Amino acid sequence: GPGDPELLTVQAVKALRRATVALVDDLVQPGVLRYLKRSARIVRVGKRGGCASTPQAFIHRLMVAEARQGEQVVRIKGGDPFVFGRGGEEADALRAAGMAVQVVNGLTAGIAGPAAIGVPVTDRRHSPGVALVTGHAQDGGQGPDWAALARSGLTLVVYMGVARVAAIVAGLREGSLPAHTPVAVVSAAHTPRQRHAITTLADLVDTVAQQQLASPALLVVGEVVRCSPRAALLPAVQQVA
Ligand code: SAH
């Protein structure tokens, strides 16, 4: 789940209780680990905290090695393991090594984060759907086509986007998304450090800088942001585009 241990699924809790070894990412809140057996070994494989990131191949090898020694391995990630979570790659690597794998879905931050401030991402009065996109291009790869997304009419939920907010705004404006389009930024949703801002595309870069809204954070772009009870200060109609 996105943070709060109360948002774990029953399946997740059962898997945690069975585990003898847990490989844990940074985004996982400490309260989640309370469901592990006391005897379970915890291995932190996160990418934050100033340490060099744990290479993905190392994580794969470690899971396989532990399982081969008879351990019951649980891999704990933030949100849903298949939404920007590398869960697909990890499951592939395990299956290739002949391991039995169970994937336990979780509540993705891209849905639960907006909901934490009252934003329903597919509210039919405002939008025909939602696109979950990364703001962070793969090494050497291309990022999303922001101009095309701007023209899609979908609510946009951008993961890993706060550090690249200027480029994202420029791309969306290129696709003619109006400057007055509402945008919410939700940081550390469903954790004790949750913070948010509600602004417009025109003011987004300044808002993120002034309010120091840092990762992990989501951008929610679209008229659905007006559904938030906290959006009352947004101008209803603005003349400048
Ligand atoms: N698998 C995760 C996403 C991992 S990618 C999921 O389904 O939620 C990491 C990005 O997710 C962060 O950069 C941020 O954009 C978002 N994120 C994860 N947890 C978050 C939280 N509690 N609040 C806001 N954004 C979060």
Question: What labels would you give this structure?
Answer:
241 residues; 5-stranded mixed β-sheet
- Attached small molecules: S-adenosyl-L-homocysteine
Taken from the alpha-carbon principal axes, the silhouette is: elongated
Distance, first to last CA:
38 Å
Roughly how many Å is the radius of gyration? 19 Å
Report strand %: 15-25%
Question: Spans of 5+ residues with little confidence (pLDDT < 50)?
Answer: none
Order of helices and strands: HEEHEHHEHEHEEHE
User: Going across the major beta sheet, what is the strand order?
Assistant: 4-5-8-6-7
> Helix count, per DSSP?
7
Mean pLDDT over the full residue set: 93
Q: Structural class per helix/strand content?
A: alpha/beta
Helix content range: 25-40%
Largest sheet: 5 strands, mixed
The number of E-state strands comes to 8
Structure commentary:
- By secondary structure, the protein is α/β, with parallel strands linked by helices.
- Helices cover about 25% and strands about 15% of the residues.
- The protein has 7 helices and 8 strands, in the order H-E-E-H-E-H-H-E-H-E-H-E-E-H-E.
- The strands form 2 sheets. A 5-stranded mixed sheet has the order 4-5-8-6-7, with helices on both faces. The protein has a 3-stranded parallel sheet with strand order 2-1-3, with helices on both faces.
- Helix 5 links the parallel strand 4 (about 130-135) and strand 5.
- The longest helix has 13 residues, at about 55-70.
- The two termini are about 40 Å apart.
- S-adenosyl-L-homocysteine binds near residues 3, 79 and 186.
